[in-house]
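Anyone opening a protein record will find just a pair of labelled lines. The record below illustrates this layout.
***
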Amino acid sequence: MNEIIKYILLAVGGFWGWFCGEFEPTFPLIYVAIGFILYDSWTAFELDKRVKKQYPDKHKRPAKFVSYKFWDVIPTMIESFIIILLMFAAQKWIFKDVYIPLAYIAAGVIAAGQFVSVCENKCSCRMPGDRNYRFWKAMAKVFIDKTERHFDVDLSDLKSDEGKE
């Protein structure tokens, strides 16, 4: 039995060594993509705090960091990891005679998508007096407002309630 475990561990170690050697150029790209994904999660948390502060009676759950919400980020990280690895594999083994930086393009697309989400989080639910309020209010004309996602109601309902008070 010990011999079988020894050979299994040897095979797993050999595969891991091959994998790291073969895909090593993608690791910095994956780190950048994961950094963007984590920053997007952080800005979503900040948005949740702003929503709770501005609409305390309408916000249903506490504005706290909750681990079950963070677990929703893990599949995004795994998908990004897989996409970058697959693009690198295609670049290396399919388009080997033509240099097309597919892994860099994939990482750039992932980073750009997360950057847009960060900007949407940053410019949503801004109140006068907030830091850089004017800048984010101007950016809100370009990006969507994610405030209503934190209520599970239509944002127009909130705006009509504000006018009545």
